[in-house]
Amino acid sequence: MAALLADATIGTHSGTFQADEALGVWLLRRLPRYATAPLTRSRDPAVLSGLEMVIDVGGSYDAAALRFDHHQRGFFETFDGAAGSASGPEGATGAYKTKLSAAGLVYKHYGREILRRLYPAELAADAALEWAYGRMYATFMEGIDAIDNGVEIADVTRYREGTSLSSRVHRLNARWNAPAGGPTEDERFEVASALCGDDFSGALAEIVLSQLPARSVVEAAIEARLDVDAGGRVIRFASGGCPWKTHLYELERDLGIAKPVAFVLYEDSAKMWRVQAVTVEGTAFTNRLGLLEAWRGLRDGALDAATGIPGGKFIHASGFIGGHATYDGAKALALATLAANPTF
Can you tell me whether residue 73 is helix, strand or coil? Predict the structure, then answer.
């Protein structure tokens, strides 16, 4: 790394600002060295050369020299790819194909340190930090990179979405016909940077304070699955409300689970036990195995008559979920469905 200047400084370009450099500056200011660093916004190479850290301008990506631009010809760094390893998404070496923006570059190099500083206790374990670091990129940062680099979310778009962080930051720029005497460009940029920080902080809090504990709950349920079902196809959560689907898919792969889980059991806020089918990964409504067709749409006594399991409350018409008065009854509904589908 280049020798650090006595006084830490950050530089980015002047003119119209975007979410990537606004977020990048906010991220850098989570680091002790740049917490109070002044910001210089310029496109003058002579001005930029005297600054310690420069992002989104300058035509150079050199982490050792603290230069993080992504506009230069031939640049195609991705979140999990190596610099200079590809000239486009088709040749990207990692799983990600989205070229990094200034924010993505800052996050790639400093994200782990930033996350651990924001949540030192929750992310003290390396495994927790790595999971949160990757999840934050996949669910928040990649969208910033893609929009800044002009990557459409789909080949054919049905509508335009104008409430994204990038759109909101764009609207903080002065209008072309704005009257004189309003906030300066630099003042507007600071508002945009704070907005980006609020969104980043909210997304990270969801990951660290909700999703990470949920992952532990799901992992514990998977490890205890044989206590619920000897075949390992049914798992039980102590309570409802825990977001589990994404964690289940990931953990099945990570733990090498050979037989996929078909049903999850949990008690809802009304003290009813639910039996819910696991959907096929990547789909919203396609079940790995739905509750039996003959039960679907039935309630109460009619359901009990069809199942022979007293205490039933309902089975949804699509077979994706059902309710029972007891845990044992909910489990029995799941096991009976599995017994009727021996080839699953």
Answer: coil
Q: Any alpha helices (H) in 175-316, and if so which ranges?
A: 185-205, 212-223, 225-228, 245-254, 300-307
Helix (H), strand (E) at residue 65: none
Q: What is the pLDDT along the chain (344 residues), one digit of tens a residue?
A: 567 887 899 999 999 999 999 999 999 999 999 999 999 999 999 999 999 999 999 999 999 999 999 999 989 999 998 655 667 777 677 889 999 999 999 999 999 999 999 999 999 999 999 999 999 999 999 999 999 999 999 999 899 889 999 999 999 999 999 999 999 999 999 999 999 999 999 999 999 999 999 999 999 999 999 999 999 999 999 777 899 999 999 999 999 998 999 999 999 989 999 999 999 999 999 999 999 999 999 999 999 999 999 999 999 999 999 999 999 999 999 999 999 999 99
Q: Under DSSP, is residue 273 helix (H, G, I), strand (E, B) or coil?
A: strand
Give residue limits of the domains in the chain.
Answer: 10-211, 224-339
**Across-strand partners of 40?**
11
Compute CA distances 320 → 56, 214, 264, 301, 304, whole Å: 48, 21, 11, 20, 18
CA geometry: angle 202, 266, 246, nearest 5 deg: 45
CA 110, CA 136: separation in Å to the nearest integer? 13
Strands lying side by side in the sheet with 263-267: 234-236, 263-267, 273-277, 321-324, 312-315
> Which helix (H) or strand (E) segment is 265 a member of?
strand 263-267
Q: How far apart (Å, rounded) are the C-alpha atoms in residues 278 and 281? A: 9
Which residues are within 8 A (CB) of 131 and not within 5 positions of it... i.e. 6 or more apart? 212, 215
Asked if 24 contacts 55 with a C-beta cutoff of 8 angstroms, the reply is yes
d(CA 231, CA 120) in angstroms, rounded, equals 39
